[in-house]
Amino acid sequence: YGPPPPPALLSSSHSHLPQDRESLISFQPEFIPFPSPTPHFTPEEIERLTVDEDLSDIERAVYLLSAGQDIQGTSVIANLPFLMRQNPAETLRRVLPKVREVLHVAGVEMQLTAAVSFLTILQEESVSVHTYTHSFLQVILLHLEHRDAGVSNAWLETLLSVIEVLPKETLRHEILNPLVSKAQLSQTVQSRLVSCKILGKLTNKFDAHTIKREILPLVKSLCQDVEYEVRSCMCRQLENIAQGIGTELTKSVVLPELIELSRDEGSSVRLAAFETLVNLLDVFDTDDRSQTILPLVKSFCEKSFKADESILISLSFHLGKLCHGLYGIFTPDQHLRFLEFYKKLCTLGLQQENGHNENQIPPQILEQEKKYISVRKNCAYNFPAMIVFVDPKNFHMELYSTFFCLCHDPEVPVRYTIAICFYEVSKLLNSGVYLIHKELITLLQDESLEVLDALIDHLPEILELMSTGGESSVHDNKLSSLPDLIPALTAAEQRAAASLKWRTHEKLLQKYACLPHIISSDQIYYRFLQRMFTIVMTNNVLPVQKAASRTLCIFLRYNRKQEQRHEVIQKLIEQLGQGKSYWNRLRFLDTCEFIIEIFSKSFFCKYFFLPAIELTHDPVANVRMKLCYLLPKVKSTLKIPADKHLLQQLEMCVRKLLCQEKDKDVLAIVKRTVLELDRMEMSMDAFQKKFYEKDLLDQEKEREELLLMEMEQLEKEKQQNDGRPMSDKTFEKKRNCTFLVLIPPGKEIKKSKLIRSQSFNNQAFHAKYGNLDKCPSKSSAVGYTPSVSGLGKTSVISLTDDSFRTRNASSAPTSFSPSPSLPSASRGTGNSVDPKSSGSKDTQPRKATLKSRKSNP
């Protein structure tokens, strides 16, 4: 872990160590024995815990339950679901009786394990419902009133799940009838609490008549229990009961009980009544809401600041649902007062002095501040609902200052919650989304990466709304008035990169792929594209590198300027494909995979086909291995007969691998790849029915690429005519003509996105790739079988529509012609890097398994 720290850096806890370097190096710390992680057993204990290995699973379970230790019995009960799957009859006959006996004297751990195992057996349906009822139900009911609350709750959860599947008659005789006596005041509080929860579950299993006659009297009795815990528990079950008895009985029976409980002396009972009323708002009509519920809510809100802070937490959480349920009932004055109450909750606790030392704050004050933070967090959660409450048109006047406070709240949970809600707020504001531009910048620049992580989940949608002003039909980019956006985005990425939270960094890079539709090509090139390339070259986290590589390819896809495209493609080939580090060459293959996904087949074949297959000569086995996995996708970019010469070069490379490969792992993958290549059928210049959808998609990609180049040329013409400037009408006319020529009938491309889109140039780097243009201008569809076995089949279905043949050299634009002036993009074996230097991530040779390189979580 590096050299020891200098003496000045040693804390007081290290004061026992020598202070000079020589003594520190020679210092031998005193050996302190640590306790063994496993307990030591005496020979007698080992003998007692040993079981005959020849026993069957059932016999071993019976033996351990009869004569084993508690830990062994607990293990048997934990494996009860397995025994039921393996041999249900013998388990029920021999093991389950022993389990019943053990549970009578079992401890807490064994009881909890049994409750979970019984529930698992029910969920797995190992036995029929009848058998389960006969064998397990009485055991569950017997332990419902266990003296330990945790054990009792565990058995109760199991019983509530069992109630879902039991028939009515069984429920009536085994559960409902005994419940009449269990719910009496003479029973224990624990028994009455269990009765409350069972009643809430039983309501949905019986008809309204049975509920009214047998269940509702018990409900009323428990709502008036002498213990506040029982009243509160029964009150929280009234929501389930109301759903089972219908609207009329709810209004006549449940509502009066809720009104009475809302005035209870116990604060927890009043809180339960309030939350139940809010959840049942949809059940009541307008008269009940305005005459009964609204006065109760008003009184509850007025008294909330004088009560316990936990009531404020619940009130702030249910505020949005309350506003929605009572919308249209408030008078203007009540509406204003309710809004002011919400604003007050949003700043609760911020008025106090924060300059004191936390170590000097009394514990009760710290606890109070935590509750205030929860209140403000709940207010942030309900902010979209409050926008609806005041109407988005009134946002600036009524709620903007509150939104500002929530975005600048000193506590991370509050800012995190408002960041999650930011997209919903943007959608609600629609054309008024420009009002929260500055708050977007604030959250992007937040010091907490948790806040940034929450915001970027919907960052593309937020930026799209910002750029269009919330109107999908508006083409003008509205972000020109927000100069701080790009610095905020770049700073956010740098903060994520400097942290250990690589998943946030990866997600942010993935979301940046939306930028070509948001900002200009030059802004992307100078502020983001180079950064993506740097991340691909230098970052040590593989998912981050791949995210940056894919986003880089998208930036390249929409780049407008020819020289910029040349530079990026040249860097990808020379610094990644021909890089000294094998790690960079692996990333080049990842980039090639993204190029195949994002660009047209012709683009990949024009620029990246030959540099990719040249890596078959790479000195590092891992690179050759990864290329072999990629070869089927590489071959899928070819079309016959236009790319016949590329197919021949692919055959030659694979033939060399088969003949010359010395690494056994790579050779095995090469052989499997050859079989896969042999099963592939080649695409033709003419459309084939079996490849119709893929060919049509590729045609659309190629048409868009051509269209973007034509638009770039038109823009250059407009700029060059400075002496006789081209009128906007003429420019638009030519551009519209380009649309008409290049867009096929029935296919529409959004003009606004194409205006913002960035085309790329199809000019080759080196004369070596010039033979791509030397294909016949027109060729009939003929079957072609490669000379090397295993490298392809040709299935020919010719279509007569020549408009689909876009890969012919005669139809290729002049910008596809080779450019000898550019540096070579090839990577031949003659000038390849020395294997000793190119066989490592840095300088040393290295062979590693592809799957072994994983980033730490």
Automatic annotation (TrEMBL):
The keyword RNA-binding does not apply. Keywords: Coiled coil, Cytoplasm, Phosphoprotein, Repeat. HEAT repeats lie at residues 215-252, 254-292. Residues 809-826 have a biased composition (Low complexity). Its main location: cytoplasm. It is found in: Cytoplasm. Residues 827-842 have a biased composition (Polar residues). Serine/threonine-protein phosphatase 4 (PP4) occurs in different assemblies of the catalytic and one or more regulatory subunits. Component of the PP4 complex PPP4C-PPP4R4. This is Serine/threonine-protein phosphatase 4 regulatory subunit 4. It comes from Ursus maritimus.
